Predict the structure.
Amino acid sequence: MGYDDYLAAEPVIVTAALTGGVHGKEANPNLPETPAEIGRAAAKVEAAGASVVHLHARRPNGERSFETARFQEIDDAVRRHTDDVIIQHSTGGTGAPDDVRHQPLRTDPPPEMASLDMGPLNRYDRLTSENTRALVDSLHAEMVDRGIKPELEAFNDGHLNEVRGLLDRRDLADPVYATLIFGPGTLAPPTPGNFLNAVRNLPEGALFNTLGFGRHQLPFAAMGVLFGGHVRVGLEDNVYYERGELAESNARLVERVVRVAAELGRPVASTAEARAILGLK
């Protein structure tokens, strides 16, 4: 993927990350947490142009949940409220035992996609998401068994080496789909140069999704559009619409990036087109 894909006006897939597993309504009261809230938010982002919804589960008290039953409630709500979106579960997490990290993969039916964090990252002062190669391999194996396409989350350049290592160790169905993530801490520093280097360092033939945290969400989405990639926006990654103004909804963030893509001459992929691009059945 690259600038030629932009010039060819290839469709761009928009993923909406609706809730996340870290901050909650204390950061933005419009962030959906309950299954019903997430279902309604999914309907609104679908209407705005998103074809993929990236889902985390929360307990009734707002804390992160990995439980299959809670993901099932959310999936059921999303399917009730939407016409046809691609459901993508998060398997990421800090401090959760490896067996617990598998639980989001076990809904009925399984999600069409699931995230796969490609390596360790620090969170706060005393927490680290380890994401060992053994865990990555076991999650990938269950995804293959259940017909789930992995979304390979690369939080820094070292994780791009881990993507190549995974390709050496295991057979991944084409096309490989990686999310390039930019922001503070362990994440790749959010500069245009680092974005270009990450795109250049992808395995040949890989598709990429672009994720910028906080105020970097919009400019990195624009770069993703310009360089033939796909984009992710939503309240998981950014609770503001602009400096000092909380985003009123996930849909508003999707609407903005859809306008940017249109102004730059790339159509937004329908769900059917997204499935074809991603090689989903």
User: Anything to note?
Assistant: The mean pLDDT is 96. The longest strand covers residues 149-154. The longest helix spans residues 35-48.
